Amino acid sequence: MAVFLPVSSLFLSPTITPVKSFLPMRHSPEKSPKPFLLLAAAGSVAFMACWALGKAAPGGFLLAGAFLFFSCACSRIEKLKSLTYTMLILCLVCVAMFYPKPLQGWGDFKYVTLIPVLLQIIMFGVGSQMSLKEFEGVVHMPKAVCIGLVCHYTIMPLMGFVLSRLVAFDGAGIASAMGLAEAGTIDPARAAALSGAISAGIVLIGCSPSGLASNVMCFLARGNLALSVTIAACSTLLAPLMTPVLMKLLAGTLVEVRVLDMMHDVIRMLIYPIMAGLLFNAVATMKPRAQIAREGLLFLGLILVLQTATGFPRGLSAPLIGRGILQTAGIVLVLAPLAGLLVRFMTKGNEETVKRAMALFSMIAVCTILTVITAANRDSLIKIGVMMIVVMFIHNVAGYFIGYWSSRVAGLDERSCRTVAFEVGQQNGGLANGIAASLPLEAPVKALMGIAPAVFGALQNITGSALATWWRGVPIRDTAPENKPGNDR
């Protein structure tokens, strides 16, 4: 779920508004990318020189700078604009790998504990770009939506399960790299638990809903954007049920999975922030009062149902459930609309300004999550990074390939097949990291579960951009006249 918008330059940002409304820069004069390309090349050469001389510390800044300058260059090259955000991500990964200590925590406080909050910020941003009309696609194209959802919640979870069983990770070596034990002294059961946590992370990323950049990839690939938005929205709403149940079935032997607790966590990190974002957007963009009132009553009913349905089975008392309802309703139904009023006053109800601001807000949170996770797992990534990259690459590309051809076999048109490919292959790594951070497990195990989502999140931006760029140059011949690519611009 994402939009393509100019914020300093064109970035892929984590929201789900139709992309085409954010392309006003297309008609602006093109600026030369040469200065940035020269700086990127100079930084790369300087990095290689430092590496050859064994000067890793300054080399990290040089490599990160090279990626940053190349990101700026990509924003000025039409065919490479889709790589702008990807290069920025690689810049942050470099910083986290070379200088992890400042990014791991402050004193005894570890930044990874902020991941659930950052995810809520992201999903609030997603909600602020949405409307309930996003779900009308279920009525207009039920076959394609159902095929996309079934493919998403079968192909990626099963691929994750298979890969987690085929690849064995060295738990003892990981423990040594993390400083948990001296090499050769760790208990075998402990080593197996650490190895299992990494494997569980592979399954977890496969069980997550659609990724935050799926609809921008779909737009670039000339796919069915309306279908992409609908599948992404529906897969997110199904996540509180599907993700915990699939994790219990496929990874229950690797780590402890409490289905009801995980359901509650997913609802707290996904559904409530989206509700708050929807109301925020309705107020900030001056929607009719009747519409705001209807959405508020609907969300109040959903809060009552969800808090009760996940509270009593977990053994919570009625007063505790009531307190949870009041707190959640206060944030969703009171604080979010008040924030919307403030933003409406500041922006005079300009919808495009609100969307751009929230997109930037969410993008910063996405970058922060990836940076913190990479820094927290830096030593483990050095130990298993190459193997994990290979595994996540297979997982990601298999999602595109199987998703596309499954849709072909099911009889969907070319544009819809491309859309389903992205909705299957792109996963919400932020949610996977948030779930891992919220599990009632010891810190090293939670950190190791976050490795696969972090690697997958970075890789899918590279593979998705490459696939979208390639598909954009491939003609679509089996699309009905009303669905031709030129008609959605």
From TrEMBL:
Pfam families: SBF. GO terms for cellular component: membrane. It comes from the Bacteria. Keywords: Membrane, Transmembrane, Transmembrane helix. The keyword Cell membrane does not apply. It is a multi-pass membrane protein. The keyword Membrane applies. The chain crosses the membrane at residues 37-70, 82-99, 111-132, 144-169, 189-213, 225-246, 266-284, 296-313, 325-345, 357-376, 382-405. It is found in: Membrane. This is Bile acid:sodium symporter. It comes from Termitidicoccus mucosus.
